[in-house]
Structure formats: structure tokens, C-alpha cells
Amino acid sequence: MFPKNLTFSMADGINNFVDWLVMRYGDSLRHVSDSILSLIVGLEGLLRAIPWWAFLILAGALAWHASKRWTQVVVVVALLYFVGAVGLWDKLMQTLALMMVATLLSVAVGIPLGILSAGNDRFRTVLLPMLDIMQTMPSFVYLIPVLMLFGLGKVPAILATVIYAAPPLIRLTDLGIRQVDKEVMEAVTSFGANRWQKLFGVQIPLALPSIMAGLNQTTMMALSMVVIASMIGARGLGEDVLIGIQTLDVGKGLEAGLAIVILAVVIDRITQAYGKPRHHL
């Protein structure tokens, strides 16, 4: 047995810090929550307003633009049609809206942090252990602080998802920029390019396959949080899986689970196709 006089607890300190955040920045957090909620509700309303057949056409067109393959288009359209055929179209739109907002926030956070990490070794040294913690921490743990700060609903689900899903994008953005050929950068520097011209004209375009791979992983991890996020009111397909577990309704849970898998496959195929160099398509 470990000696009690050598033990200590971090729980009280963490709880006091969260309480201080709520007391000091409660109003600001409420404004942030309202802004994110408005974005989710607006996007969800837009997706629901699109007729199912028009959405299938848009999805097929996106798959064609990404891959230039008709087989890819047929697979994407057929899989999404199947989700509608089993009566989960509305839930699919809810989940897609949540995932798109979570991915958008992950990109807004992840790519700038990846760029900063690639250009600053000291910042990278501090950032990498934090990313390790974010990726290895059990996903349920993220729900506790966001619930304390924002309560039940879609917003805490989104923020917990961003914390869980952003690290791959940060890592692969950093890796992609660092792997840009030094001779190319020396040539660009010799032509008098400034820092921003190097970044947006050379480094990011050459690192795009790596960045798209990070985006692919981020979207997959965001989808993996769908069921967990439903426990705090996120709704969507994860809610049906959760109900299936609670009521032992295997069929309902399996249908919703297959719909989540289908959405993951569709997004994976499209983002992977965009991540490949265009001459490989």
C-alpha cells in the first residue's frame, strides 16, 4: 500500500480553477456558446432545407471533383441513399452539421498552431507533450470541464470534439511544412520572397497532401466522438446508438452505427482524393 503521507490530490485545485473560470468569465463563455450554437443551428437548418435528391447530386459532384472517377461517385451516392432509405436522413443531417462545425473549428485552431510549430522549435517542444496528452486522455474526460463551463447541449459536445480531434491536424501540418525541400526554400529565398510569400506560395501548397491527411484524421476522430457527444445532448445518429444501447434495441443501434460508418467512408474517400497530388488522379 502506498504511504498516505506521500499522496496528494490535484482534484481540488482543478475544481477551484474551473469555478474561478465560471465566475470570472461566465458571460464571455456564454457569448462564445451562443455564437457556436447559432452556427450549428444555422448549418443544420441549411442542410435540412436541401432536398434529399439535391444533396445526393451535390455529394456526387463533390466526389467527382475530388476523384474524377465515376465509381467513386456511384459509391458515395449509393451509400448516402441507403442512409435515407432506412429512415435516418434527418439524423444524418444533424450529425453532419455537428461534424462540419467541429471540423471547421479544428481547422481554425489546428492549421495556425501547426504553422507556428513548424516555424518555432521552442513552441513545438512545449506543444508536442500537450498534444500527446490530448490524444491519449480518455475522451469521456473532456466532457467534464465543458459540461461545467457550458452545460448540456450541442456546444459542449462540439468543444469536446475539437479538443479530441484537432491534434492530428496540428501534427501533420507541422510535419508537412517541415518536410518541404530545403533546396526549394533556398531557391525561393534567393528570388527575394518574404516570409508570407514563402508560407502561402510554397510551403502550404507543397505540404497540402500532409495537411489533407491531417484533415482526414480529424474528421474521422470527430465522427468517433458522435456517440459519446450524444450523452450530453448532441443528438444526431449517436443518439440512436445510445438509445439502442439503453433499450437493448440491437436493430436500431446497428442501423445508426452503419449510418455513422457510411458518413465516415464518404468523407474519408473525398478527403483522401483531395489529398492526392492532382496528377495521380
Task: Explain this structure.
Helices cover 84% and strands 0% of the residues. The protein is mainly alpha-helical and 281 residues long. The protein has one domain: MetI-like (MetI-like fold), CATH 1.10.3720.10. The longest helix is centred in the first third of the chain and has 39 residues, at 11-49. The relative contact order is 0.12. Keywords: Cell membrane, Membrane, Transmembrane, Transmembrane helix, Transport. This is ABC transporter permease. Belongs to the binding-protein-dependent transport system permease family. Residues 92-271 form the ABC transmembrane type-1 domain.
Span between termini? 61 Å
Q: What are the segments in which pLDDT stays under 50 over at least 5 consecutive residues?
A: none
* Mean pLDDT across every amino acid position: 84
Q: What would the principal axes of the Cα set say about the shape?
A: globular
Tell me the major beta sheet: none
Spell out the helices and strands N to C.
Answer: HHHHHHHHHHHH
Question: How many H/I helical runs?
Answer: 12
Give Rg in angstroms: 21 Å
Could you state the CATH homologous superfamily?
A: MetI-like
| Beta-strand content estimate | under 5%
Task: Determine and state the CATH class.
Answer: Mainly Alpha
In the residues, how many domains can be counted?
1
Say how many strands there are. 0
CATH architecture: Orthogonal Bundle
Structural class: mainly alpha
What is the helix fraction of residues, given as a range? over 70%
